[in-house]
Amino acid sequence: MGNVTASSRDRIFDAARTLFERDGFAATGVREIAARAGVTPALVIRYYGSKEALLLATMGADETITQIVRGPLEDLGRELVRHILEVSAPGFARRGVFGALVRASDREAVRQRLRQTAEVTTIGPLRERLDGPDADLRARLVSAALLGLITAIEIFGDTDLASADAVRLTAIYGSTIQSLVDPACGGTGHASGSLPSSAPSAP
Amino acid sequence: MGNVTASSRDRIFDAARTLFERDGFAATGVREIAARAGVTPALVIRYYGSKEALLLATMGADETITQIVRGPLEDLGRELVRHILEVSAPGFARRGVFGALVRASDREAVRQRLRQTAEVTTIGPLRERLDGPDADLRARLVSAALLGLITAIEIFGDTDLASADAVRLTAIYGSTIQSLVDPACGGTGHASGSLPSSAPSAP
DNA sequence: GTCTATAGGTGGATAGAC
DNA sequence: GTCTATCCACCTATAGAC
């Protein structure tokens, strides 16, 4: 916060972020990070405590999703999909932030970060904006649907999906997600008639 | 194949599968597997070559999804969601097969397995059954949507999603996925009017 | 503030004997 | 077929010099 000098600490930060995103957490050694930053391995630990803590420090949340969720509701699905495709595109600056965390999800601390990030950046803000029944559940499912797209592209490495026509993909999957955003107001193709009434569930 | 005696090899297999699913790949040591199987660590490697090969050997595909995809199309979305919730339920026998692989997705061989499994068990069979334009893309998106749900529950550990009313969740998300299965035949709530005509895209 | 040197501990994998 | 003993690489952390 407010640091003016770009010192070893920052070079370690940058080196770690780059290598975690490119090679993954397990394959990236503290020695590699140190070498790329031009320091010794000991300094990496001294500044950040551990390799895991360094991972969590470098992998920040994507605030753009929150901004989109706070925007107009009519095109929310398409806007979210469009953004996911944008950040998943090869060459994008923050590409791999999500992938690096998921690939390191063997660690409980990483899973907690993923859970918390989804809750804070997407589910929470979205829940408060949704009308109709099951707002919380639908917000979670919007998050899950986005999660699946980004996982298919960045983790599974589905090149057919990544190289698909972004316009068509956005139109199709955006509409799919939009059906979760819009309250099921009868006869729009939703099987909303079979839904039980919106009785609050959790005591 | 055709082995009658349950020998050390099988005990190693069972021990590895249990521990990988419960504790994850990284947290499970070869020594632990060996101890649980009642053999020495050396034998584990001798039989399966490496810990990674043992993971791939134990983590088989879920053939039930393929059976569902080959079933009736009208309720495909709901049936798929219902099945995902079933296998993700605590206490289910195969719980964690998917999660164990994703949590180990730091390794390229594991990612390849995930990609191939999705292609063979879901995307391929589904693509051939879909009518209308963009069958391949829609099949991939159905797979991605399921992926997101299972990832949210098993990787992120969204307990609110896991403990949600299965009937409501199945109805909502099942309909969402069903909208990808059904060809967009105009006026069912889909913004299909904004879709460009099904012109082949890639030059 | 930064570095050298080092030590402990873990874990996968191998060689060769029984 | 199974075991014993061992190798090697790596992460983590500490102590203390410049």
List keywords for this structure.
Tetracycline Repressor, domain 2, 0% strand, 203 residues, 2 domains, disordered C terminus, Arc Repressor Mutant, subunit A, 63% helix, homodimer
In summary, what is this structure?
Chain A is mainly alpha-helical and 203 residues long. The first copy, chain A, contains eleven helices and no strands. Chain A has two domains: 8-58, Homeodomain-like (Arc Repressor Mutant, subunit A), CATH 1.10.10.60; 63-184, Tetracycline Repressor, domain 2.
Descriptive account of the structure:
The structure is a homodimer of 203-residue chains. With 203 residues, chain A is mainly α. Chain A has 11 helices and no strands. Chain A folds into 2 domains: 8-58, Orthogonal Bundle (Arc Repressor Mutant, subunit A); 63-184, Tetracycline Repressor, domain 2. The first copy, chain A, has helices at 8-23, 30-37, 41-48, 51-58, 63-69, 76-88, 97-103, 108-127, 135-154, 159-162, 166-181. Chain A is elongated, with a radius of gyration of 20 Å. The interface between A and B is large, with 63 and 64 residues. The structure holds a DNA duplex (18 and 18 nucleotides).
Strand content of chain A: under 5%
- Structural class estimated from helices and strands of chain A: mainly alpha
Number of helices of chain A: 11
CATH superfamily of the largest domain in chain A: Tetracycline Repressor, domain 2
Mean pLDDT of chain A: 86
Oligomer: homodimer
Largest Cβ-defined interface: A-B, 63 and 64 residues
Series of H and E elements of chain A:
HHHHHHHHHHH
